[in-house]
Design brief:
With about 130 residues, the protein is of the alpha+beta class. The protein is built from four helices and five strands. The longest helix is centred in the middle third of the chain and has 6 residues, at about 65-70.
């Protein structure tokens, strides 16, 4: 009867540790870049991203992960459409209208004119 365990027979010279020695065995890659989110989370065999859920139509999102929801919620990106909404709301969502002309008061610099009766300076555009 042999005193060696089955582990030692199949893999001689290898110790059962979780630390430095087992880290050298980690050369297999299961995940690659995701097309949608860009993280290395797309599982090659499962064909699904563990971060965003690609290729599903809706983004992967769970309410038990509050911080993850905050990282990719509205306002963290460019907001190409939503950033114009407050300005349009202020103007009443007007479309296809032309701005009214503003009349210019006068060209040139304003020069002071002294009136001797009231002894105050008034500014007149010339």
């Amino acid at each position: 009867v042999s005193t060696q365990s089955t582990w030692d027979i199949y893999q001689p010279g290898k110790k059962m540790t979780k630390g430095t020695t087992s880290q050298g065995e980690r050369r297999k890659k299961n995940a690659t870049f995701c097309r949608r989110c860009g993280k290395i989370s797309y599982h090659k065999q499962r064909k699904r991203c563990s971060s965003c859920g690609y290729p599903e139509a809706h983004l992967r999102r769970y309410n038990w992960a509050k911080k993850a929801v905050r990282r990719r919620t509205t306002g963290t990106g460019r907001m190409r459409y939503l950033k114009d909404i407050p300005r349009k709301l202020k103007n009443g969502f007007k479309e296809f209208s032309q701005a009214k002309r503003v009349k210019q008061r006068g060209k040139g610099k304003a020069k002071p004119e002294v009136k001797e009766s009231k002894q105050t300076i008034t500014w007149i555009n010339i």
